[in-house]
């Protein structure tokens, strides 16, 4: 792998020749990196089979995060191109300043890209469980306000990711939100450029992605109306006991109209996103907390 320092020439000449990589090249680069990470993850798993504490250590390789960390350390972390970047002839760069991104910027970008969305959503879920815990000392109005804020954030974050992806397909700038926040882009330094037809196809995909976002926003609004109707239909069942534990009062309803206590139904849906009774598909974010309205 070549270092960026070996690939970059003098700053004055760089300003004349540095150009943004197109969408197809960036996507091909990421796909090649993902393929190599998958192979690395498989090799790590095979290596663990030879160790005595295989079962204890194997749980850490359920996700590809360890393999991604190792890959990052020996590529971008050391100032080298990744295999995908080398294959497509692109390098990470700050196109505005005509400079190589700092190590801190590359690390922050990697953390945001690998952990940002999932960690944020998981944190919001933990906060919502705390807010709806009957043992906390929050007032009814506070519970209502916090539930509205947390539910709104849980629906907005995936939409922001989708909107950003649409703009990337259209403009070719900043593959992820982490790279946008750290001002890390991609520059084309060698090799032939992608066909213009491919770029236009991706721009069309970006427009479709933005249209999909608008459709999801409309669906969320429709779901909110359905939730309000569901609340009216289930008001008479609110004070009944939970149908799972049969002890706690039912405070939460599924879109199909069944009511449970919050801890029971949230724990159930994390393991299996289906109503315990009618087996209708129920994503965790679609359950409605009734006692705070």
Give the strand content: 5-15%
Determine the N-to-C terminus distance.
59 Å
* Strand line-up in the sheet with most strands: 1-3-2
Low-confidence stretches: 4-16
Quaternary structure annotation: single chain
The number of helices is 11
Overall helicity? 55-70%
Beta strand count: 6
Largest sheet: 3 strands, antiparallel
Count of discrete structural domains: 2
The H-and-E topology, N to C, reads as HHEHHHHEHHHEHEEHE
Q: Structural class, please? A: mainly alpha
Radius of gyration: 24 Å
Mean pLDDT: 78
Shape: globular
What do these coordinates show?
This protein is mainly alpha-helical. A 3-stranded antiparallel sheet has the order 1-3-2. Strands 5-4-6 form a 3-stranded antiparallel sheet. The protein is globular and about 70 Å long. The protein is 59% helix and 5% strand. The chain has helices spanning 4-7, 11-17, 23-48, 54-58, 65-74, 83-88, 103-131, 140-171, 177-181, 196-234, 262-271, and strands at residues 19-20, 90-93, 185-188, 252-253, 259-260, 288-289. The chain folds into 2 domains: 23-219, no CATH class; 237-292, Herpes Virus-1. The longest helix is centred in the C-terminal third of the chain and has 39 residues, at 196-234. The chain starts with a helix and ends with a strand. Helix 3 packs across helix 5, helix 7 runs antiparallel to helix 8 and helix 8 (140-171) packs antiparallel against helix 10 (196-234). It is built from 11 helices and 6 strands.
């Amino acid at each position: 792998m070549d270092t960026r320092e070996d690939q970059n020439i003098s700053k004055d000449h760089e300003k004349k020749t540095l150009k943004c990589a197109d969408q197809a090249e960036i996507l091909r680069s990421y796909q090649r990196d993902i393929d190599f990470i998958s192979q690395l993850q498989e090799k790590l798993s095979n290596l663990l089979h030879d160790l005595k504490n295989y079962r204890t250590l194997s749980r850490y390789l359920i996700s590809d995060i360890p393999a991604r960390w190792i890959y990052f350390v020996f590529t971008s972390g050391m100032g080298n191109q990744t295999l995908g970047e080398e294959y497509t002839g692109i390098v990470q760069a700050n196109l505005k300043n005509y400079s190589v991104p700092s190590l801190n910027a590359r690390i922050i970008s990697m953390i945001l890209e690998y952990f940002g969305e999932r960690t944020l959503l998981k944190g919001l879920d933990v906060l919502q469980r705390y807010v709806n815990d009957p043992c906390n000392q929050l007032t009814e109005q506070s519970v209502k306000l916090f539930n509205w804020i947390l539910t709104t954030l849980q629906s907005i974050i995936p939409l922001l990711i989708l909107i950003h992806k649409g703009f990337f397909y259209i403009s070719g700038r900043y593959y992820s939100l982490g790279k946008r926040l750290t001002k890390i882009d991609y520059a084309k330094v060698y090799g032939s450029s992608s066909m213009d037809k491919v770029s236009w196809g991706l721009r069309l995909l970006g427009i479709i992605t933005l249209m999909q976002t608008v459709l999801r926003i409309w669906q969320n609004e429709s779901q909110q109306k359905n939730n309000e109707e569901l609340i009216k239909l289930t008001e008479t069942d609110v004070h009944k006991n939970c149908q799972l534990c049969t002890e706690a009062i039912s405070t939460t309803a599924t879109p199909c109209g069944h009511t449970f206590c919050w801890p029971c139904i949230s724990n159930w849906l994390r393991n299996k996103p289906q109503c315990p009774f009618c087996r209708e598909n129920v994503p965790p974010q679609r359950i409605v907390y009734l006692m705070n309205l």
